[in-house]
Task: structure prediction
Amino acid sequence: MPRTLICKRSEIPDNGLKECVTQSGLKVLVANAGNEYFACQATCPHQDVSLCEGLFDGSVLTCHQHLWQWDIRTGAAIGLAESPLECYKIEIDSDFVYITAGGDALDVGELFLGIAGNTLESIKALAQRREMQAGGTLYGIGDPADDFFVLESGRIEFVIGRDDRTSPAGFMLRKGEVFGWAALLDSQPQRIAKATCLEPSVLLCINGKQALKVLESDPAAGYVVMRRLSSLIARYLAPSGAK
Ligand code: FES
Result:
């Protein structure tokens, strides 16, 4: 796995935080915890808030906005937090700090996590990697829902409504998150939200009908994926969103 330079060790305050941006535009938060270093996503998984402005006691990171908390060593959610942080492996080479990304987005995402190896490989074979610039639109309301997407890196914003009667429907930034899942539903041939990249983003784009065929050939995996999909839809449709 190639490593990516994020900053110099001397730039990270003692028992403090530093937000870094990689050459590809990925924002990473680096924490110095008593001369041990940890890296995680730089933006709160709750809302678009920089975690570098949060509180850090050398062990627990707290977002100042609504006080979600995480264990800086593992990214595990603590207390009120409803979502973990995506973490990166750190490598220190003299004064330089590097990260290596975790596994493939399809391996870590909640929809396909742990399904049979052959079936997952067949889904991976369908995936096309797409790199988007900040501001790029992935789809708009009414567009045909042919593909669904798995977020590899970056940040996607969703908006519902038309013209000046639009309202935000949340955003997502965690590696492995799935959206555009209307492509996996027979009854929903069109998009019901607009999806825009808030920053340079990398996505896996997978044809819904072809993925369903793969899942039909492995009913056990298909059942697990559909059960997870239904709870994912329930979570995002209540109270406002539609992804
Ligand atoms: S924005 Fe961070 S906890 Fe709400």
Notes: The two ends are 31 Å apart (CA to CA). The helical segments are 105-108, 117-126, 208-216, 219-237.
